[in-house]
Amino acid sequence: MAKIVTISSSKGGAGKTTTTICLADYWAKLGNKVGLIDTDPNKSLSRWFEKGRSNGYFEGIEFRQQLQDKQIIETAKQMAKEVDILLIDVAGIASVSLLKAAGIADLVVIPAQPNEDDFLEAANTASIVKEAMELTSREIPWKTVVTRGKQNTAVLKHMVAQLKKLNFPIFDTIVHDRTIYPTARFNGATPVSLEPSGLAALEIEELAEEIVSQLVSDHEKKQKQAA
Ligand SMILES: Nc1ncnc2c1ncn2[C@@H]1O[C@H](COP(=O)(O)OP(=O)(O)OP(=O)(O)O)[C@@H](O)[C@H]1O
Ligand SMILES: [Mg+2]
């Protein structure tokens, strides 16, 4: 069974779709079979993926669109049998889809830009993940990734410091604000494909490695508890 990573925030424009497809592209290029599910009625991941496919990118990624919240769990379970890692992109509102996509996940990644609204919505998303934990009676790890951080700015440093002070789980990797992200999107690509040695590709690699470490340590913890 694949590990399922849901990328969600109840805030629009936090960087969910960008993070999702960049990670998918990175893991696929390493030779993993990657699954992607777009659950967002805006279908932005679908458009990005289809454009990329027609431009010769995204080999090794299996894509499905599932806009019916009733079908999300079934679709994810089916796909999880066929791939090594499954990523689910969710619309930027508190929704039944978000609750379900969190409920089936091994890890929920919550992107947040360094501003107060994104921070509050990250906290709101974390509370939805906690509801999913209560419903499913299982531990669902979640962690925030700061996105579109402007290098060496006070606001970025302040956001990271505040999150740490509040013991908010946060990845060390910062996804910085870089024009390569929207540029890649126009081309139906990602920085991993367009500039594999660039700084954006490097930070995607770092984030992907942090996510894998988190999944491995959670898996080991579960095995110990079961023993
Ligand atoms: N690291 C980045 N650097 C520069 N621009 C970025 C970065 N990440 C995302 N963007 C831009 O920010 C906008 C929102 O990003 P994205 O679509 O990934 O967010 P989202 O959370 O999926 O939004 P929605 O809630 O609408 O689905 C897009 O225009 C995207 O190109
Ligand atoms: Mg999106």
| Basic shape | globular
At the fourth CATH level, what is the homologous superfamily? P-loop containing nucleotide triphosphate hydrolases
**Structural class by secondary-structure content:** alpha/beta
Which percent band covers the strand fraction? 15-25%
* Structure annotation, total helices: 9
Q: Termini, distance in Å?
A: 20 Å
| Low-confidence parts | none
- Small ligands present: adenosine-5'-triphosphate, magnesium ion
> Which topology does CATH recognise?
Rossmann fold
Instruction: Classify the helix fraction into a percent range.
Output: 40-55%
**Order of SSEs:** EHEHEHEHEHEHEHHH
Keyphrases for this structure?
binds magnesium ion; Rossmann fold; globular; alpha/beta; binds adenosine-5'-triphosphate
Quick overview of this protein structure:
The protein is 51% helix and 18% strand.
